[in-house]
Predict the structure.
Amino acid sequence: MKKLVLTIAVLFSISNVWAEGNGVNGVNEVKGTNNTTVRTIKAPRFARPLVEKWIKEYAKTQPGVEFQIAKGQGNTDLNVVLEDKSFSQIVYFGETAVLPITARSSEAARLLEGKHLNNKKLKQLYFLNEDFDEEVKKNKVFESITVYSGSNATSVASSFAHNFGEESSSFRGKRISGDDLFLNAALQKDPLGVSFNALPNIFDLESRHLKSDISLVGLDVKKDVADSFSDNGTLDELLAALENGKESEVPIEKVGISVNTTDDEVNKFLEWVLAQGTKYNHEYGLLNLK
């Protein structure tokens, strides 16, 4: 607990300096029920169910304090973000894993069936690179497939690219703007499309199985966890496999909360998230911090 308190103390020391320099002294003014001030949280779609769970559970402990998911593009008090080594105002609470996907029963799924792609093959499939462009041209399967990648700041595209030593600007194929959930939709319209996404976006959090319209691209993983990385594996099996051992073909990125206010109620909420909110990570498809 001392470590958590120290983390919050350091974060808010930084936040106070930021606020004074930017003329910010309180929360973003949004009125809620009974004329209370609402604190807003912006989150990418893959983390939103977890954040909604936090809001619901925290309200039971602090009924007079109201948090909401932010709507639109206005200022927010808290932002759920992927790891950013250049930005110090982040409290990390978990990790997300990113897997390559295609549409179930699609032509791309048929072409990739039975293949167990290692790092080199994944780079050839997903990225433009002079070192293996000739190999891609020789591989008629890869050449015929269209890659769909995310393009905004909240996308896991950078996490996926960096895992293979690439930049997000190096993806083959087409860029999709907006939330990464739109990548799933793009695959349903293109029988030769492949993409990638965070686990909460590709698994049904209720059934714990893949969404019915999604198929995983086969990976070259250890034999003892191969079933967990198949279309028949469950979300819980996959989370256990990833926490028990690193698979180099699977990008894993820290997820945290950045703060845009010095409000004491936001401070208390962050303390609660670190102390109590992380126990919901697995339920909502996130890994625990290592």
